[in-house]
Amino acid sequence: MKKIKIFCSILLAALMLSALVGCGKSYDFDLTEYLTIGDYNNLKIKQSDIDEKLKSTIDSLKEQSKETKDITDRPIKEGDIVNINYVGTIDGDEFEGGSGEGYDLTIGSNKFIEGFEAGLIGHGQTDKTVTLNLKFPSNYDKTEYAGKDVTFKVTINSIKADVTPEYNDEFIAAKTDYSTVEEYEEETTASIKGSLALEALMEASVAKKFPKDELKQEYKNYINNSFSSYQSQGMSIADVAKQYGMTMDQVYKNAADYAAYNVKLRMIQYTLIRNENITLSDDEYTKGAEKIIKLNSSYDSVDALEDAFSKDEIKDSILFEKVNKWLGEKATVINDAKNSGSTNSGSANSGKANSGTAD
Fold first, then answer.
1. How many domains are there within the chain?
2. Residue range 337-353: average pLDDT?
3. Does residue 130 share a domain with residue 77?
4. Which residues contact 79 (CB under 8 A, 6 or more apart)?
């Protein structure tokens, strides 16, 4: 399994939902004592990074929207899910573990011995039964079969495949809150530009020290968000850390890094709100709260959301999105010559909290 990593995406869903915790009345003090903010009037972001992140977002949406469909107009190919019955024989006799019915086999998964899956490719429409003459590998784990010739008679019951939907207005209207590809990409690009601009401002800003209460709260948020679902199953943090191949020192370091990053991020956002007098109208609040509800099925109304979080918390989370988009609009986009398919969109470390201590 992958180790737990700090994921600091500032795109819409993550921003608006995660921002609900730990804001509101927090940071209600002079932030200049803690933060030297960078020059946010002269930020530069790369067009290639915007293009790359937009492509990644679209690809992710398409991947999440894949549907498994019956295939009736072509033979089996790599990646298909084939439902089969099979009977294996050695020297004409069936053997233990060599037969099965109604088995779903993904072609290319290498679940069977070499040649089995490849032998089904190209079949499946007019020829529903395939005979495969194969050989067990010499190092097969069941030594009594190792190196022996084996014959499988395979009946193909059905073929299915994961089908990626066509990316068009109809798809966008069905899967998002937008009506057209143009509208979706325009709004997504604005969020991406805000994310990249904020990353650049994180780099350009220095956290001189960190407010203790806010740092402690973000530390607790990390532990709770990362481990609460496991703890409800009776697992300790140490158990979960071991499962992910982490030491407790790594867990504590991740929590500390996460806390420092988020506190610095919040200080920058609140500084921009105050310096530029960025406010939220009643209409913006209502639309923003409704957007949060759409992103989280736990809440079916604005009233339900306000029962779970204070209005200050909700307001600030919506303001953070507005601030980020405002920052993205101010940034200068560099039309670099880098191929948009390459990868250079930054990482969690790109906005790392510069040296500072808890106050």
1. 2
2. 42
3. yes
4. 106, 107, 108, 161, 162
